[in-house]
Amino acid sequence: MSAGVLPYTVEPHPVTGLYSGKLGTWLFLASEVMLFGGLFSAYILLRVGAPEGTWPTHEEAHLSWKIGGFNTLLLIISSVTMVMAWANLKMNNFPKARMYLIVTVILASLFLTLKISLEYYPHWHDGLKPSTNVFFGLYYTLTALHGLHIFGGIVVMLYFIGPGAGLWKTNPEYYTNRIECTGLYWHFVDLVWIFLFPILYLMN
Amino acid sequence: MKILRWCAPVLVALAIVWMADASPALAQADAPDISDVQIDGEYGQFPTYMPPDVSKHGYHVDDLINILHVFMILLFVGWGIFFVWCLMKFRARPGHTADYKLVKAKAPKYLEVAVALFEAFLLVGLSMPVWARVKDELPTEADNPIHVRVVAEQFAWNFHYPGKDGLFGRVAPEFLNSATNVLGLDPSDPNGNDDFVSGEMHLPVDRPVITQITSKDVIHSFAIPVMRVKQDAVPGMRISVWFHPVKTGTYEIACAQLCGNNHYSMRAILRLESQSEYDAWVEEMAKGPAEFDEDDL
Amino acid sequence: MSDHDHSHDQGFLRKYVFSIDHKVIGVQYAVTALVFLFFGFCLMMMMRWQLAYPGQSMPVLGELLPSLFGKEWAETNMGGGVMSPDLYNSLGAMHGTIMIFLGVVPLIVGGFGNYVMPLQIGAPDMSFPKLNMMSYWVYFMGGMIMLASFFAPGGAANSGWTSYAPLSVTATQGQTWWLVGMIFLITSSLLGSVNFIVTIFHLRAKGMTMFRMPFFVWAQLVTAFLLLLAFPPLEAAGALQLMDRVAGTSFFMPQGLVVSGVVQEYAGGGSPLLWQHLFWFLAHPEVYVLILPAFGIITEIIAANTRKPIWGYRTMVYSVVFLGFTSFIVWAHHMFITGMGTSISAFFATTTMIISIPSVILLTCLLITLYRGSIRFNTAMLFALSFLPMFAIGGLTGLPLGLPASDIALHDTYYIIGHFHYVVAPGTIFAAFAGVYFWFPKVTGRMMSETLGKLHWITSLIAINVVFMPMFFQGLAGISRRLYDQRLYSWGDAMQGWTVVSSWGAWALGLAQIFFILNFFLSIKFGRKASANPWDATTLEWSAPSPPPHGNFAKVPTVHREPYEYSVPGMSKDYFPQNVSEA
Ligand code: HEA
Ligand code: HEA
Ligand code: CUA
Ligand SMILES: [Cu+2]
Predict the structure, then answer these.
(1) Which end of chain B has fewer CB atoms at under 10 Å, N or C?
(2) What is the pTM of this model?
């Protein structure tokens, strides 16, 4: 049985106004909000409860807002290219959509590369490890979890660029929907970064 | 036949209890050798209710528990009678049919409101004032309280007394020595000179006690059932709890929170004494061998 | 939906192992969960030996296990056939974990939910069949990791199912396995709950409005939301604890910890209570995950066997939704004794009292449904009826725990153990048994034996009360939970008699399950053939053949009325199925 026989895989449900995949994606994102919400609450609690003088200052944190800011920019642009990919599918322009998807993947990979080579690696080298203090513990945990989400996004996009692209020929609407859901996820991952950036890079 | 059907369950229950009770082949293994201290208080063979209360404020907790259980039993029996009556009266049988129309009963609504109101009363009228009294309103110095620090560790209770000066010495982990300085008292702090640490808790009766509870390693829970006191000992936190013993005797202190493999044996003795006995004990302990030797340092 | 007829050309693997049919997945879930349930119970029966006869070598197992696990294991865990305190703690932690996360939830949500819910709303399948299959296999892997952890050096996790830090952070390797296992289980639940919600919103048959859904579906819907939103914070907490354990961070480790005289290397600055907040933020809603589907199951059974509509169906729906919302703001009632001030404890005590009201309403509605009914006492109904007073005992004993002042005396004593076992064991497990007896004919096409069933019911009901009733007495007397040998305390020593009684009850309960296991397997093969609707029930699952084919309904059903139209006046039959248009 292919998933296609079930109702509302492509057409929106009259009451919710969403097709099933999109509703599912929203629900999944709701749970992601709780996941990162849990971590952000942990951050707040630990920071408020930190004994006097143990939270690193801006200098001690060794996090350059320039690298972070540039990475933020990359993600924001990638959100735009993601939308472009979907918009082009809507306009039936598959090659262009695919091009935009590839650009998104490149931006995302660049983000990860910069993160690892300019931040994780030198930090680790300087002995700033998760165990150094609670701030670095949080920093590594939060950014790594976020990085994992970016990585997951890249895998999904690569799938739709490569092996999953065949769906465009058999069921273009379905394919477009899947890209839309990927996009929703992608915007969420960017949004998480928009929260992470200030609390980690700017607020010490 | 019918009688048999009703008796069978009772018989099975009795059989289980009997087997359990009459299993002499499996009589208790050697009693554990923790200590041969005689603990006061009558417990009997199959006790079903709370241990004796030897504190001034414990009866608040007991009152609440008593009222609650009466309330719970009343509700349960009330509902239970209705339940069993329904089962008998409306059992399926030839000639009997169910009634499609739903009863328009007001009673359940009133009952639910009554339950809610009563819960509100228990909460606001009984629980909250007691909690505020027991947890937040510490006795003032005018009440002449005893101060004791309670430091839990796997798997022992350390009772840190300020000695006769009434002042605690500074503690820090770097001074710690598991043989000579279990609390990590700072030897350079004069306040700590007559401090002493005991594995038994001694307290005079008829004076309030303020304990500051903390832990060196994992979370423990400081529980004195006969005092209706319980407080988690959380590492990194120092939590004050007070109580007011009124009756002399020897009792037990338990660890209520799982803290590792010997959690079950983390027990200490509580001795409630007259003021003079207590003073003598403090005298003895304060001059006794210092907890650490300055020459060691 | 003719595509569904392809089933004949599917291979064995596709059909039974990696099936994407919600019914096969439901059965996979249910059977796996039953096995885990039994396993979790066996762990407990071993512990009950140590509790009743501390220091005496275990009969049979005392020799069998050492020869199974090898000498080295036996020396540390079972010298002379007596379990060590570490093993006791491992078994306790794993009993709690297995019962809740691998037994009950997968049975009543993964099993019954998956199998029955789509049928009841007239759906051909779940919205995302592949995701459904994945959620089962992720659950399965989580379970295997949990089982494998018994072989980890130092044994399985031994810091309780609550895994309080810092104990859990400094514990042996089994805890890491536990955390990894939990992350799998959480992921599985998330996949499942997304699927449930979308299915209920999108795949209802024509005419199946929200207020025509059977109550079971409502219960599953609210449960799915609880799983969806409460589990992620535990996943976050699990990730943090994993970091503490493997990367040396100190999220839950305060400054200056000294474990067995050794100053710990942790940087410090963490908070042990943070773990508890994150844990209970999940674990309180989790207890409603355990009870709501149970309410759903018994509502179906009570309606079908009193032959009359449920009294206050809408009230029940509102109550269950309200329960769902409020369950997110009561979590700290598990933490009264951690050093809470008056105002915070008052807040959580208030929400706790508020949340008990919808439970009272649910029970009341079911109770009044009996009034003027025509009650059939089949096995399913007997279990469902027993649920009511048993849940009442469990629920009522929750009240003294919810009031902070009385909780001082009762926290972390056997009273807690008594409280929650009354809600989960004679409560939820009985509801699950009821569900098995009720839906067995639908799943297998055969009836279960009523004689064996009734024997199972009466013996279980008695035994389970013998197990858990003494725990209230022990708890009031102040005996701490998780004690390897309570006789070290004078009051524990006095209580030993009750402990022995309770243990014998547990073993009797174990024997009683033989009736069930026999009945279960024999009936699959030899049971009387069941018709499509053996109970003369009204909901949609009974309009499909027993067992339903791939794709569920020969003809897509249309729904014409409320779920429980029994004994409608003027009808020839005493039930009026939802899909039948006119009499
Ligand atoms: C299914 C699981 C379940 C359910 C439904 C509940 C329901 C409730 N629980 Fe329980 N609870 C647990 C599972 C559950 N609990 C577990 C597992 C723990 C321990 C965890 C651990 O520490 O390991 C726990 C612990 C726990 C604590 C912490 C205690 C402590 O550690 O100190 C508290 C405190 O408030 C509490 C309160 C309540 C309350 C007020 C309810 C209320 O919702 C109950 C409302 C119900 C009623 C009020 C009953 C109404 C009945 C009638 C009106 C009579 C009808 C009569 C007939 C039909 C005959 N529970
Ligand atoms: C859903 C949850 C659940 C369930 C159902 C149970 C069921 C039981 N529990 Fe447990 N228990 C917990 C959750 C649960 N428990 C938790 C969370 C703890 C705390 C752990 C901790 O301290 O961290 C605990 C702790 C706990 C203790 C306290 C240990 C201690 O503090 O030291 C005890 C003591 O007796 C106990 C006993 C029992 C017994 C006798 C049952 C019996 O009711 C079991 C009955 C089981 C069955 C009847 C299953 C039968 C199944 C079958 C027959 C399947 C057949 C298979 C096929 C047909 C394929 N449990
Ligand atoms: Cu210390 Cu339990
Ligand atoms: Cu709770």
Answers:
(1) N
(2) 0.93
